[in-house]
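Predict structure. Chain length: 424.
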Amino acid sequence: MKKTLYSSDYGIEPNGLTDVTGKLQQLIDDAGASEGKAVVQRGIYLTGSLFLRSHMELYLDEGAILLGSKNEVAYPLMQTRAAGIEMEWMGALLNAIDCEDIVISGTGTLDGQGEIWWEKFWGKDRKGGMCSEYEKMGLRWAADYDCLRPRLIQLRNCKNVVCKDFHLTRSGFWNLHICYCSHVLVQGVWITNAQGPSTDGIDIDSCCDVLIEDCDISCNDDNIVIKSGMNADGMRVNRICEKVEVRDCTLREGMGLAFGSDMAGGMDEIYLHDIHFIGTDNGVYIKSSKIRGGFIDHTRVEDLDMINVDFAINLNTNWFPDFSYPVIPKNYQGKIPKRWELLTEKVPEGKGMPQVKNMVIKNLTSSYEENYTGRSTAFFIQAFDENPIQNIQMENVKICAKEFGSIHQVKNINMKDVEITIRS
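Prediction complete.
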């Protein structure tokens, strides 16, 4: 019988004021050594980075809160992948690295105390901070990488992982990052109050055999996103993201259901279905650029219902140029970090154009409420003349929007039972 260990047995004070990282880590280490279960009981536990072990379960009791430290040194720098680049980055609040057969469960909460990290990036008024400083220097693309902020959960190079039922809130950066993993189930996870920059909900990054189901996500960036590496560094790593299914989820505030913009390793056999969108910026969302490389192939998106969505279908292979095309200004006099070199490494001629093809969008409805004052656009589909999006099939699509939008540079778009109603 597997051994169950309790936080109270380790003299851990759950008062939210005393840093208990060391004692919590001992609880986790002992559970890993015995291939058992570590139970974090009701209370508030102030902690920095924690590291799971193979063949164990971490269970968060109802009312148990892992409260992320506001101290940067609580999150050690480590080699990882962050925003598509392999580089040194802060550890997450909860990490599983090179692990197998692990479970993170229970109805407790991981709280990142994100406001301090959000202010670091864009200031208290959301107009300053590092983002504003870098933009003035022509370095907007570097701000996200230089402004180190911790994720809530990092799963890297793991297999046979279950994440279920817990609550993630106030993340400093991405909420749940699943990278280089296989056979992962994320079920019943609830994400709220992620109002800071780049607070993605769930990032599925160069993984295989992943199922996301019954999740409810509100954030300030992509709610759920498929990724596979950025630019030349992503091409070097060359790890595909494939056999991913997302179903029965509710997406609220955020950028929607996204592919990219990190897609250098490619994406294949992605199935997204039975998803509810309430007030997201986008429904189906592809974002890339002409130096991203990679491909999106054999994707099915079915049974989606959307209400008060800015763009129902947004497929853009020339997304956010100020971020997507990094160049170090000629007049820059400072030290050039290694991550800048990776980001600005020249992509070989002919390898940068992303290939987007063979996408089925079926059984989609989108509308807006009478009192909705935001934007409401049916389509924004844009690619390059020399590299169009290919083979898009839409069937049984019914969109009521304020404007039609636009469709450019698509080769072979087949529409069957597509009804667009414009009310302006």
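Summary: The first helix runs from residue 21 to 33.
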